[in-house]
Specification:
InterPro entries: ATPase_BadF, ATPase_NBD, Euk-type_GlcNAc_Kinase. By secondary structure, the protein is α/β, with parallel strands linked by helices. The chain contains 11 helices and 11 strands.
Length: 306
Amino acid sequence: MKPTTFYIGIDGGGTKCRARLRAAAPSGVTGDGALLGEGVGGSANIRLGLDLIWTHILDAIDGALAQAHLTRAIFSDTSLGLGLAGITTGADCERTIAAGPRFAFANAATDAHAACLGAFSGRDGAIMITGTGSAGYAWVGGRGHAVGGWGFEVNDDASAAVLGREAIRAALHGFDGLAPHTAFTRAIMAHFGGHPSDVVKWVTTARPGDYGTLAPMIMSHTADGDLIAVGIVERAAQDLGKYLARLNEIGAPKICLVGGMADVLTPWLAPWTRSVLAVPEHDAIEGAILLAHGAPNGMAVEAVMS
């Protein structure tokens, strides 16, 4: 690829996307370019539709451009790296790039791959994302290995969305007398209006991010020692531990726990996990900027079979 004057990295998750604009590195070393601006947009999970997510991506880019006193006119001299939730195949990468405006160069990958590139500056390692959704990903020996991350409906263990779903399930069980009805489950029911019909109405249009908004309430009642809330968090931490063990087994020497739920769930993890956990060197946006510089996009990614 031909070097460009500007580099944009996008970290797009289920709740929001973040953009970072850097100048070309004078030293020629990836990541040394001056920071020119940053911006934030809405969800960039491609499952929501490419037209919608590109609106959000461009909102974020516009915010970064505004800080730099630049416009979209620079796109023809800009390399773009996209790390987006919902991407699972090389075909997803191609159609996502094709749906957007033209840049001098564009590269796309899963949000997990971008986060892993950033966390280890492109070296071998693994990340476990636990935010609105969840996904494990290892970059070992030039190959990507995905563990989980197959969507809220069937997977996304130890994510804010699944915690929210389990909280609602527990609240309905409590209401029906199938399980204890605690201060926590009563608070969840009250949040929706107090009756299961209110819950049913809400879930009809709710998205994973909506379920995830219940996470603070869950953690608040967990801190109070509510047995139902504590049980939900303990199960999430156990699930998270299974993913960490699998990523280490694949060959990742260290694993970075990232995402909005990472700090929340870390204290609940088993003691053995401390030996494999590491602090990310850089964030996922820097991983996306590595993609903009031509780093491998991890395709084809190996889905790790049990």
